[in-house]
Amino acid sequence: MEYQIAADSLKDRVILVTGAGDGIGRQAAISYAAHGATVILLGRTVAKLEAVYDEIETLGYSQPAIIPLDLRGATKQHYIDMVETISEQFGRLDGVLHNAGLLGVLSPFNQLGEDTFDDVMHVNVKAQFLMTQAIMPLIKKSEDGRIIFTSSTVGHEGRAFWGAYSMSKFATEGMMEILANEMCNTTVRVNAINPGGTRTGMRAKAFPAEDSGLLKTPKDIMPLYLYLMGPESKDVNGQCIDAQPKG
Hints:
Layout lengths: L13 E5 L4 H12 L3 E6 L2 H13 L6 E4 L7 H15 L4 E3 L16 H26 L6 E5 L12 H20 L6 E6 L6 H6 L15 H8 L10 E3 L5
Parallel strand pairs: 1-2, 1-4, 2-3, 4-5, 5-6, 6-7
Helix pairs in contact: 1-2, 1-7, 3-4, 4-5
């Protein structure tokens, strides 16, 4: 599907992107800024966030902001404080892209370590749950709020050896559907994206023997990310959409 979005469709919007230091998160932040948004870059590695910040400024887009936060160690209070900071600095929040995620270890089910399970579920599910709870009062004030989760093909159908990551993405889709159903009579739209095989560090870790040159780049799949964050998707809610549909 060809997603159409106006060049300035995100003008005056404030959008939070998690995992904004590299990969899909980095590209989404740049693409949102290119379409007029003020972007808040959240991630655990300050140097990476600063590089994205500098790139956005160099391109002449609206000045972004940086929130350094490691989701693995973050608590409910961290997210409450984060929202207070956003409210004080910008007075609003119009969208969030939950992009940060942890792959964990691919292994047989009976060899999956408890620590790995806990880490993956904390970053991919609990952190997003707590962050979304914290941002809800602010994003519900937006005239056209957007919350986008990130799923996976293994979040549609379980696959051998994908362990905690697959389970976390099933949970993510469930969380999205629950929230979307609750928000259906508001101005907030909640959806999820399955990026598919994309040229990122996480993909390389999962498929080390793969020829990454055959994969789509994060920039290639941005039309869907822009569409679901913009006003054009006001009638789309509770959907998990494949960025690279088959056939």
